[in-house]
Amino acid sequence: GEDVEQSLFLSVREGDSSVINCTYTDSSSTYLYWYKQEPGAGLQLLTYIFSNMDMKQDQRLTVLLNKKDKHLSLRIADTQTGDSAIYFCAESYSGNTPLVFGKGTRLSVIA
Amino acid sequence: SQTIHQWPATLVQPVGSPLSLECTVEGTSNPNLYWYRQAAGRGLQLLFYSVGIGQISSEVPQNLSASRPQDRQFILSSKKLLLSDSGFYLCAWGGGQGNQPQHFGDGTRLSIL
Fold first, then answer.
1. CA B91/CA B33 separation, integer angstroms
2. pLDDT band for position B41 (50/70/90)?
């Protein structure tokens, strides 16, 4: 079945870049997403990428997609303490189908 | 712009009591609606999703049910809560006008005593 894998923890120093990695198994995934969850809050959509794209950049965020290896990454430039949160990778077959989520990567930013 | 409202924010219920969580969406029509549960281990589990009024797909057999009485209203219910129903419940919408990606509500933290 479909599966999305992420490392559980990442710790970086303030001002450094963070790279959160994700692998997925479903080769028919068309949409790939990154969500951010702060403590006690819902999920905030950060960015998403279509499978026919290799890269998407949005201010401090850069998403890279290697479709051959089914690998997705989120790079946060100049990481700030406010970036501390859990980051979820998710995939779906289409924009109208349910998402399959990874278990989330807890990003800790050290001042 | 589209917004999603979910309430209550927190709820403490005794075992065996009923449950009703409500979710409404504004600013779009014919959205797909979803209920997820997030347990202490952080993963999100899809419970139900709906592509239209009265159309509910259930992903996990359990003592919960969902209903969609109106286009932009999604309700999660239970007749008798179990201890294992504790968790963080998240409503989401997607699709609709402009085929939007999924956006989540602020969640309901449910504690069963």
1. 7
2. low
